[in-house]
Design brief:
The chain contains 18 helices and 15 strands. By secondary structure, it is of the alpha/beta class. The protein folds into two domains: 220 residues, Rossmann fold; 183 residues, Glycogen Phosphorylase B (Rossmann fold), CATH 3.40.50.2000. It has a seven-stranded parallel sheet with strand order 3-2-1-6-7-8-9, with helices on both faces. A six-stranded parallel sheet has the order 12-11-10-13-14-15, with helices on both faces. Strands 4-5 form a two-stranded parallel ribbon. The chain is globular. The model has no long low-confidence stretch (mean pLDDT 95). GO terms for molecular function: glycosyltransferase activity.
Length: 468
């Protein structure tokens, strides 16, 4: 079996998170061939952060904002343009549009869809939209905004991927679009795995983005919603990591029979052999993650200042790469200097985390967005309790579910709540009974629900179920 594993802006160029998950999935299925497909923004030379396992037999990359010349494909016809025009009607119901687009692509799938940008029907539709909805807007700005919205989508519809037995996309988005279109072209099944919910994440970004004018925010949101709805429609199976994610998927997907939950897993046997550090002098807390804004290191630094005032022998290790967002890293350094925490907080850079888990009492996670963090599962396997923000499945992992009532493996607080994070760290320092009990529960929970062998078994069964 050959699986086309599709990543958008992550593996093999970004460490941690989805990249780590994908690399582990590939390495753990030695009897399955993988074609790694990466989608970038613009053509550039980048150094991979991972060496491909031996069962990666092909690698393919394309870029969302490249201007491709595809001579061997037919240009968009007037008939297709008229049908598309009839689908894209106000009030632009995303699920309805996605259903109709999927039916249309069943008949029209081997075209150069980027050619629509040079067609008369596109020009006519664009002008009609302009006159009807934002005639007061600068037309040049309108023209190029529309181009920037559509080009990544049309490139993803047009590009031909290497032929595989199944296409497995790790997000809806453009990765999902290219998976669905190639699934249609090659009559192959598509599997979708969502760590985070793409349309929800994009909606938050659009609403906060300063570069997007208010006139275009709804259009961006509806475009991303339509993309997700189309990928849900075209996927044979939709997997996610935890139950809460499915509530968001159901906003744009009516077929719940395709949905299933496959939690992340870690090599419990490897991590559980490490000994948990019960000695708390000094009290050492570890934050394992990239120094980037989404991990909200600044909130962790604010919490560290409060903990230091209460626990003089406190140390915070920030364990992970520091080079992905240099400006943000420098801002963190400046904050540490202002708070006079130079002797309290240490950035390790990229290291082997196995050498650090035995040195920390508590894991800290201050992120503003996560799926199901592998670092929590790794720490739990060692027996390290966690103080984390309530993002992704962190609450479910730390507190358990209705089917898992063995107790708490740490403390959960709201995102950005540095006071809550500080109080949680102090609680785990002062309350020895709670800390040791949380350590015990953490190991039990991972062994029972989040083992790597369970995850690999589930995905392998899924692959074979869709190609039978």
């Amino acid at each position: 079996m050959r699986v086309g594993l599709i990543f958008e802006g992550t593996y093999p160029y970004v460490t941690g998170g989805v990249s780590s998950w994908g690399n582990t999935l590939i390495k753990s299925m030695k009897d399955v061939e993988f074609c790694v497909i990466h989608i970038g923004a613009t053509p550039e030379i980048r150094k991979p952060k991972y060496l491909f396992p031996e069962n990666v037999v092909d690698y393919f990359e394309y870029f969302l904002f490249a201007n491709y010349t595809i001579k061997y494909k037919r240009k968009i016809t007037k008939d297709f343009g008229n049908k598309l025009k009839n689908i894209l009607r106000y009030p632009f119901d995303e699920k309805s549009i996605a259903e109709n687009l999927y039916d249309l692509f069943q008949k029209y799938n081997d075209y150069d869809f980027t050619s629509i940008l040079k067609s008369k029907i596109y020009w006519d539709v664009m002008l009609n939209f302009y006159k009807a909805y934002i005639p007061y807007e600068n037309f040049t700005n309108y023209f190029w905004t529309l181009q920037s919205m559509l080009l990544p989508f049309l490139n993803s519809m047009t590009v031909d991927l290497p032929k595989c037995d199944v296409y497995h996309t790790i997000t809806t988005g453009y990765a999902g679009i290219v998976a669905v279109m190639n699934g249609i072209k090659n009559n192959k099944p598509v599997i979708l795995t969502e760590h985070g919910i793409y349309h929800r994440e994009r909606q938050l970004e659009v609403l906060k983005a300063g570069w997007i004018k208010d006139e275009y925010r709804i259009a961006w949101i509806k475009l991303f919603n339509t993309i997700s709805a189309l990928v849900y429609k075209g996927s044979k199976k939709i997997t996610t990591l935890f139950l809460k994610n499915q509530f968001f998927e159901k906003e744009l997907c009516n077929d719940t029979n395709k949905m299933c939950i496959i939690p992340n897993g870690v090599d419990y046997d490897k991590f559980s052999q490490l000994e948990y550090r019960k000695e708390k002098d000094p009290y050492i807390v570890g934050l394992v993650g990239r120094v980037v804004e989404i991990k909200d290191i600044k909130t962790a630094i604010k919490a560290a200042k409060m903990v230091k005032e209460k626990i003089p022998n406190f140390k915070l290790l920030i364990i992970g790469p520091i080079d992905e967002e240099p400006e943000y890293y420098n801002e963190c350094l400046e904050m540490i200097k202002v708070f006079q925490l130079e002797n309290t907080i240490e950035f390790t850079g990229k290291v082997n985390v196995l050498k650090y888990y035995t040195n920390i009492n508590t894991l800290l996670l201050s992120s503003v967005s996560e799926g199901q963090p592998l670092v929590i599962l790794e720490a739990f396997s060692v027996g390290i309790p966690v103080v984390a923000t309530d993002v992704g499945s962190c609450s479910e992992m730390v507190y358990g579910t209705k089917e898992d009532i063995i107790g708490n493996a740490g403390i959960i607080v709201k995102p950005k709540d540095f006071v809550g994070l500080a109080n949680g760290l102090i609680k785990l320092y002062e309350d020895d009974e709670f800390r040791i009990n949380a350590s015990r529960i953490a190991k039990i929970r991972v062994k029972k629900r989040y083992r790597l062998d369970q995850m690999i078994k589930n995905y392998k069964e899924l692959y074979f179920s869709v190609v039978e």
